[in-house]
């Protein structure tokens, strides 16, 4: 129990080497706006604010959406997208629901289908389902990527403009200030 012996195992708190999850990077089929809407919805129902939607929170969510589920139904909903098998939904697993909905992979009568449909988040990605063949889908994916870059550029331009306006206001204020201090 010497302090030196105790410090050996410390040093890397939680260093599991997991990649940081980037919704925009992984879920490229959704626009930044759709991802923000999904995140807002997720946070709204993450009552424990622990970054997960557990069984009880999902139960409440489905009741509020007007599609209450049985205990077994809720468990099955989680099981369908619970990749790490912790019996709760991380934000990433929550996004998988909408990915599956957009791809038409959810059963019509499933709880997840109801969740995706009733959440009022429009997941109709620009017709990836409608792509007649692989090359068309590939071309579409490239378009998605460039649209995404354009959205980022537009956001950056807006920030730049705001920064410039702020700088001009500060300069004008300094000028005004100097006329009083002379």
Automatic annotation (TrEMBL):
Q: Where is the EF-hand domain?
A: 33-68, 69-104
Extract the Pfam families matched here.
AIF-1 (PF21008)
Mind telling me which SMART domains this protein's record contains?
Answer: EFh (SM00054)
The record's annotation in InterPro entries points to:
AIF-1_EF_pair (IPR049025), EF-hand-dom_pair (IPR011992), EF_hand_dom (IPR002048), EFHD1/2 (IPR040365)
* SUPFAM superfamilies registered for this protein in UniProt: EF-hand
Which residues fall in a coiled-coil region? 138-176
Region Disordered: which residues? 1-22
Instruction: State the superkingdom.
Output: Eukaryota
Q: Which UniProt keywords apply?
A: Calcium, Coiled coil, Metal-binding, Repeat
Q: Which GO terms describe its molecular function?
A: calcium ion binding
The reply to whether Metal-binding figures as a keyword in the UniProt entry is yes
Q: What is this protein called?
A: EFHD2 protein
What's the source species' lineage? Eukaryota, Metazoa, Chordata, Craniata, Vertebrata
